[in-house]
Design a protein that fits this description.
Layout (H helix, E strand, L loop, with lengths): L2 H7 L4 E5 L5 H8 L5 E5 L7 H14 L2 E5 L5 H9 L4 E4 L5 H14 L8 E6 L2 H5 L1 H5 L6 E4 L1 H7 L9 H16 L3 E5 L4 H10 L2 E7 H19 L2
Parallel strand pairs: 1-2, 1-8, 2-3, 3-4, 4-5, 5-6, 6-7, 7-8
Helix pairs in contact: 2-3, 4-5
Length: 232
C-alpha cells in the first residue's frame, strides 16, 4: 500500500507543503526535513507539464509523495498529471457527492492498474459543500477531504478572516462530519502554528497543509528581530 495511505489508515498525521516556487531542488531539500507530501499547485502557479514531471521526480528522490491540483477538473488534464508521475490529485471546487464520485472515476480511468495506490483529495470550499460533506465522505476512493478555510471565510462574508468565530464554528462542524464519515480531514495550518496546530489536531484533523513562503517568512522575521534586539 502507498506509504501515505498507510499512515492515514493508522490515524497518523501527514504534512503536505506547498513549495511556492517551481523548484525541484527546493522540493528535494524540504522533503529531507520531515515533511511528507509536495503539493504542486497548478491551479494558482505557472507549472507546465515538464516542470510538474521534474517536481515529482524530485519528490521521489527525497522519498516523499507528490500531489497536484489542476486548474480544471478535466479528465484529460488529470490523466496527464498522473502520466507526469504524481502520486495523487487534489480536486478543487467539489460541491457534492456526485462530483466527488466523478473525480474518483477519473483517477480509475487514468490509472487502471494502480488507482488504489493514488491519493485522492477532495476540496470543500463553500458552506453549501459543507452541508453535503457527509455524502462526499461516503464516496469510496476518497482519501482526504480538505476544507478550504480561506474560501469558506470569503463565502461567509469574512474575507481574510479564516479564524473568525463563525468560520471556526463551521469548520468544527465540517471536521466532525468528515471524521464521522471515516475520511481524513485536511486543513491549512496558516501562520500561528503554536495555536493552530494543537486546535486542528485535537479536533481530528490529520492532514496538515503548510506553505514554504510562511516557513521562510517566519524564519526571516525571527532572524531580523534578533538583529534588531542584539545588534550594536
Amino acid at each position: 500500500m502507498n506509504k501515505i495511505k498507510q499512515r492515514l489508515a493508522a490515524g497518523q498525521v501527514v504534512t503536505m507543503f506547498n513549495p511556492d516556487f517551481a523548484s525541484p531542488r527546493l522540493v528535494e531539500y524540504l522533503g529531507g526535513l520531515g515533511l511528507d507530501v509536495a503539493w504542486i499547485d497548478a491551479e494558482r502557479m505557472s507549472y507546465d507539464f515538464e516542470r510538474i514531471e521534474e517536481m515529482t521526480r524530485a519528490a521521489r528522490l527525497a522519498g516523499i509523495a507528490s500531489v497536484a491540483r489542476p486548474w480544471l477538473n478535466d479528465a484529460g488534464l488529470i490523466t496527464r498529471y498522473f502520466d507526469c508521475g504524481v502520486d495523487g490529485i487534489m480536486v478543487p471546487h467539489v460541491e457534492d457527492g456526485a462530483t466527488a464520485r466523478k473525480m474518483v472515476d477519473i483517477v480509475r480511468y487514468a490509472r487502471p492498474r494502480d488507482h488504489a495506490e493514488k491519493i485522492v483529495i477532495i476540496m470543500v470550499e463553500t458552506p453549501a459543500a459543507i452541508e453535503r460533506i457527509a455524502e462526499i465522505a461516503a464516496v469510496p476512493g476518497v482519501d482526504v477531504i480538505n476544507i478550504g478555510v480561506n474560501d469558506v471565510a470569503l463565502a461567509l462574508g469574512f474575507p481574510g478572516q479564516p479564524e473568525h468565530p463563525e468560520v471556526t464554528a463551521l469548520l468544527e462542524t465540517a471536521i466532525a462530519r468528515v471524521v464521522k464519515g471515516g475520511k481524513t480531514a485536511g486543513l491549512n495550518v496558516l501562520t500561528n502554528w503554536e495555536e493552530r496546530m494543537p486546535w486542528l489536531l485535537s479536533r481530528g484533523v490529520r492532514w496538515l497543509n503548510v506553505r514554504t513562503n510562511n516557513i521562510i517568512a517566519r524564519g526571516a522575521r525571527q532572524y531580523t528581530d534578533l538583529l534588531k534586539r542584539y545588534a550594536p
